[in-house]
Amino acid sequence: MLRVALVQHQGHQDRNTSLQESIKGIREAASHGAKLVLLQELHAGLYFCQTENPDFHDQAEAIQGPTTKQLGELAKELGIVIVGSIFERRAAGLYHNTAVVLETDGSLAGIYRKMHIPDDPCYYEKYYFTPGDLGFTPIQTSVGKLGVLVCWDQWYPEAARLMALAGADILLYPTAIGWHPADPQDEKNRQLDAWITIQRAHAVANGCYLLSCNRVGFENDPVKPADGLHFWGNSFIAGPQGEFLAQAPTDKPAVIIGDLDLKHSEKVRRMWPFLRDRRIEAYEDLVKRYRD
């Protein structure tokens, strides 16, 4: 049995304040026996992609920069695996939205660079992030093979499937998603329900456990302070049949815990052998942008 945890919290302008929120949650999770902890997307600060500002690139850091170093030291101290998220500066003018996985000895087990990059009102990520170039490859750790994906990736069944086909034991999604204040309540409800449903479907379709960790709270638009995003929280842990094992609230920080029986995935896949029955010889059109 593997005990896992998600740390959902508010973002702050000050990097250290935000990172301390993450660290506080990690320590709480470890105190409850968690051996794998997932943090939210870009957890060491505000979600700056609400607007396009070249100065925000100054927040980027190298993979082996301060955030990774602090998380690595904490992983070693607590003897746990931590999945964090950084704004990676790869070179001048070349940046990625990158997940970092720290092993129990503090070493870097691997990274994943976000593949699908959105460009929508309040989510101007194409301005900041170059699409990932590492493909969909699980990261081997002492707690299993982790299929780490990031936020917008969670809407694409292809990404989850390719991670599962490469042997991922668990799908993990650090996330930053929320409502615009102008959205009516019924639209908010539809968006949240769709977000939860698509990810539970990935768990079902691939017979995998799934962890999704989102931000929470309101963050102002830097250009239009009256506007902004209300991140809807609702971080959750789902089983291989889509069942909820734990779920965080919509409106406040939380550390949620779940116990994963990885052998159960094998039982579910024997009952629902979706991988066995795939008609791979008929899927060639999936590599097309659109089938005219």
Observed structural traits:
292 residues; alpha+beta; six-stranded mixed β-sheet; 5 helices; 24% helix
- Element-level helix/strand string: EHEHEEEEEEEHEEHEEEEEEH
| CATH architecture label | 4-Layer Sandwich
Report on the biggest sheet.
Answer: 6 strands, mixed
Shape: globular
Number of domains: 1
Assembly classification: single chain
Counting helices, strands and paired strands, the structural category is: alpha+beta
Based on CA atoms alone, the radius of gyration comes out at 18 Å
Percent of residues in β-strands: 25-35%
Tell me, rounded to a whole number, the average pLDDT. Answer: 96
CATH topology title: Nitrilase/N-carbamoyl-D-aminoacid amidohydrolase
Q: What proportion of the residues is helical, as a percent range?
A: 10-25%
The H-level CATH homologous superfamily, spelled out, is Carbon-nitrogen hydrolase
CATH class (first level) name: Alpha Beta
For the terminal residues, how far apart are their CA atoms?
A: 48 Å
As residue ranges, the low-confidence spans are: none
Q: How many β strands by DSSP?
A: 17
| Strand arrangement, major sheet | 5-4-3-2-1-17
Number of contiguous helices:
5
